[in-house]
Design goal:
Blueprint (H helix, E strand, L loop, with lengths): L2 E9 L2 H12 L5 E5 L4 E8 L2 E8 L5 H9 L2 E8 L3 H10 L10 E2 L4 E6 L8 E7 L9
Parallel strand pairs: 1-4, 5-8
Antiparallel strand pairs: 1-5, 2-3, 3-4, 6-7, 7-8
The structure holds ligand LP2KCY5N and cobalt (II) ion (CO).
Pfam family, one: Glyoxalase_4
InterPro entries: Glyas_Bleomycin-R_OHBP_Dase, MeMalonyl-CoA_epimerase, MMCE/EMCE_epimerase, VOC_core
Keywords: Metal-binding
Length: about 140
């Protein structure tokens, strides 16, 4: 694992939360992205070498809606940057961690991601993320 890539924070109103974190970090939201397959609207802020990912649920089935219903707003996951996500998934599975997908999925901010169940990581949802290869300039 290279570093903490981002910390995911579950929020009920991403516009209000964005204003709070912009003030807190003294930096603007640099990107917003809707990731429908994960059921989330995201907003990203840079905090030194790391990022804060604000997450609002798109519907009641979203993991964010379920999390807020049970625990309230707050830290939802920690994401670690990895160089080779497939190799890291195999290493962690071998160590007994419960992976939530067999293959990396497309995440936000041009990342390949895989989640590790919080029950196998001391109650913390872990995300692995690797920068996704960009398509060649001018297409194929
Ligand atoms: C934008 C894309 C991406 C990125 O690029 O960065 C993201 O970050 S997307 C973020 C949202 N997506 C996910 O969270 C996907 C992974 N999560 C899941 O698959 C599920 O949320 C889960 C972890 C498998 C839990 O789902 P489920 O079992 O259906 O929900 P429950 O509510 O019944 O929870 C079971 C159990 O787990 C506890 N829990 C749930 N979420 C968390 C959490 N984030 N941190 C800690 N613990 C969590 C929950 O409290 C339940 O515990 P008990 O009540 O003790 O059984
Ligand atoms: Co995330």
């Amino acid at each position: 694992m290279n570093k903490v890539e981002h910390i995911g924070i579950a929020v009920t109103d991403i516009k209000i939360a964005s204003l709070i974190y912009e003030k807190l970090l003294n930096t603007p939201v640099y990107k917003t992205e809707r990731v429908a397959r994960e059921g989330v609207q995201t907003a990203f802020l840079q905090a030194g070498p790391n990022k804060i990912e604000l997450l609002q649920a798109l519907d009641d089935d979203s993991p964010i809606a379920k999390f807020i219903a049970k625990k309230g707003e707050g830290i939802h996951h920690i994401a670690f940057d990895v160089t080779d996500i497939v190799a890291e998934m195999a290493r962690l599975k071998n160590q007994g961690f419960v992976l939530l997908s067999d293959e990396p999925k497309r995440g936000a901010d041009n990342k390949l991601v895989c989640f590790i169940h919080p029950k196998s990581a001391n109650g913390v949802l872990i995300e692995l993320c690797q920068e996704a290869p960009r398509p060649p300039e001018g297409g194929v």
